[in-house]
Amino acid sequence: QVQVAESGGGLVQAGGSLRLSCAVSGSIISIKAMIWFRQAPGKQRELVASINSGGATNYGDSVKGRFTISRDNAKNTMYLQMNSLKPEDTAVYYCNADVQRTRISSGNYWGQGTQVTVSS
After folding, report:
1. pLDDT reading at 4 higher than 90
2. Are strands 10-13 and 114-119 parallel, antiparallel or unpaired?
3. Three-class SS string for the chain?
4. φ/ψ (deg, to 5) at 74
5. What is the rounded distance in angstroms from the CA atom of residue 42 to the CA atom of residue 55?
6. CA distances in angstroms from 90 to 8, 23, 80, 112, listed in the order given
7. What is the CA radius of gyration of the chain?
8. Is the Cα torsion angle 59, 61, 63, 67 positive or negative in sign?
9. pLDDT at 1
10. CA separation for the pair 27, 43 (Å, rounded)
11. pLDDT tens string 64-95
């Protein structure tokens, strides 16, 4: 099966930086798109950033100008560089991958999440 694994979360002071990674493994042909979501306690899940197979990116308004999404297609990995972090960025960050598994099958897969905590 396909597996998705996030890493890179942690505790950082406001104004600091973190880089999250999301690695996709298993029997796949390609990754059509990769998306970062986040969810804080008591809050609705929020789109953070996305990138498609052609490299086109999209960002949520709250992170635009501070976060950068990228991908390494050869490694089936995407990254989220988070700069100028704010306490309101505190959340569990989840990776979602839209995967072409075979010639006739695709699927959507979630990672387990990684905690990002920003202190003031």
Report:
1. yes
2. parallel
3. CCEEEEECCEEEECCCCEEEEEEEECCCCEEEEEEEEEECCCCCCEEEEEEECCCCEEECCCCCCCEEEEEEHHHCEEEEEECCCCHHHCEEEEEEEEEECCCCCEEEEECCCEEEEEEC
4. -65, -30
5. 33
6. 14, 22, 15, 16
7. 14
8. positive
9. 86
10. 34
11. 999 999 999 889 999 999 999 999 999 999 99
Q: How many CB atoms lie within 10 A of CB 10?
A: 13
Residue 23: C-alpha distances to residues 2, 20, 74 (Å): 11, 10, 11
How long is the chain? 120
How far is Cα of residue 23 from the mean position of the Cα atoms in its chain? Answer: 10
- Tell me the residue type at 98: D
Among 116, 89, 99, 87, CA closest to 34: 99
Q: C-alpha distances in angstroms, 111 versus 55, 75, 93, 95, 108? A: 21, 16, 9, 5, 10
* 27, amino acid identity: S
